[in-house]
Amino acid sequence: MSDVWSGLVGQRETGTTLQAAAAAAAQVAVGQQVAVGSMSHAWLFTGPAGSGRSVAARSLAAALQCVGEGPPGCGVCPGCRTVLAGTHPDVRMVVPEGLSISVADIRGVVATAARLPALGRWQVVVIEDADRMTEGASNALLKAIEEPPARTIFLLCAPSTHPDDVAVTVRSRCRLVTLRTPPPEEVAAVLAADGIDADTASWAAAAAQGHVGRARRLARDGDARARRSDVLAIPASLRSLGACVAAADRLVRSAESEAASITTELDADETQALQTALGAGSTGRGTATVVRGSAGVVKDLEKRQRSRATRTQRDALDRALVDLAGFYRDVLLVQAGAEGSRAHPDFDDEVRAVAHVVTSAHALQYLDAVLACRLALEQNVKPIVAVQALTATLRLPAA
Ligand SMILES: [Zn+2]
Q1: In angstroms, what is the span from residue 80 Cα to ligand 1's centroid?
Q2: 13, 29, 346, 373 - which has most CB atoms within 10 Å?
């Protein structure tokens, strides 16, 4: 059985809250009274990376448009299915294509959301990475959620590591949903339910450190496993300046190629869809005019694709850094004699090799350096510059 809530891993409380809210919204939609506070026009989903913020938001969006029998969110009716497939006309997804969400993006979506729903019961706007809204964008959104149109619901998502990145004025008007990092056993159970064998499932769940999407990729995609191995081989290899420079290069290149493998396919699909929409290949009166007017649209798409490529690269690099941070945490665990839950039990030899040649104070500095590098990348420092500074810091002391 797969209703829209089945994608929420290890979030039982959140599931209950959202189901109740969807049920209340369904009553409101048919003109019934509900208790004050049981349904909200603005939501903010926060939680660590991989906890399923956008999955939760999409599940609620689907349940709001559910037209099935029984409790909203059946997962099989046309409402649920089209929302999950991203084709429901009354659900708009705002995803930053570059590093930020502009005021123009928000104004456009707010204007559309103010109309009555075309098909469903609600106009739903999902803003992923709401922390990437510019100040202007936040202000434009604030106006809309202060006095939301009667049939409009805003669902915002933002990582909990930087709650301040969503303007407090916006946050204070949202109902807050906090997701937690799902425990590895629950992630493993989800993978197993997908048909992955138990050993691979529990290994991938541990290696992904609570990130469900990454656990899936590690379990299924040999390239993703190979990239992880490359990254985890780095710490023990940093014995000379040359090795540090080479490792920085490898990390950045690997993020680039991972991002390229994700975006090339997306780009091609979008370009094809746009060309079809613009009537490429058709002939007859009016075609020339359409094509001339469409040059701007195509250029706009290309611009968004370029900034998405940049962002995907940064996300890939960030995942590599999360793996490295896990490695140094494992080093500290070994040094402390704590054999508890290690992030990378399959790299025990490498972890012990490093634990053997550095002090705990060193290992802690290394861990801090990885976290500082993540921060630098978030603040738009050029990847190669940030990563070279990092690997130079991670250099092992001469034996
Ligand atoms: Zn449904």
Answers
A1: 4
A2: 373
**268 C-alpha vs ligand 1 centroid, how far in Å?**
31
Distance 5 CA to ligand 1 centre (A): 11
Beta carbons within 8 Å of 290's beta carbon, 6+ residues apart: 278, 279
For residue 116, the 8-state DSSP code is P
pTM: 0.73
**How many angstroms separate the alpha carbon of residue 90 from the centre of ligand 1?**
15
Å from CA of 48 to ligand 1 middle: 28
Q: How far is the CA of 77 from the centre of ligand 1 (A)?
A: 4
pLDDT digits (tens, 9 = 90+) for 325-359: 999 999 999 999 987 778 898 999 999 999 999 99
Residue of 273, 275, 268, 262 lying closest to 309 (CA atoms): 262
323-358 in b/e form (b: 16+ CB < 10 A) is: bbbbbbbbbbbbbeeeeeebbbeebeebbeebbeeb
Residue 290: predicted pLDDT: 47
Q: Is 290 left (phi over 0), alpha (psi -120 to 50) or beta?
A: alpha
Q: What is the DSSP letter of 101?
A: B
Residue 148 CA, ligand 1 centroid: distance in Å: 25
Q: Is 70 helix (H, G, I), strand (E, B) or coil?
A: coil
**Dist. CA 231 → ligand 1 center (Å):** 42
Residues in the chain, pLDDT under 70: 1, 97-98, 161-164, 277-294, 399
How far apart CA 294 and CA 315 sit, in angstroms, is 31
Contact assessment for residue 137 and residue 106, using Cβ atoms and an 8 Å cutoff: yes
Ligand 1 centroid, distance to 36 Cα (angstroms): 25
Nearest C-alpha neighbor of 25 from the set 98, 97, 103, 117: 117
The pLDDT assigned to 97 comes to 64
Q: What are the tokens at 291?
A: 């094509």
Pairing of strands 152-159, 175-178: unpaired
Q: What is the side-by-side order of every strand in the sheet holding 123-127? A: 91-94, 123-127, 152-159, 42-47, 175-178
Cα 9 to middle of ligand 1, angstroms: 20
Q: Ligand 1 centroid to 67 CA: how many Å?
A: 5
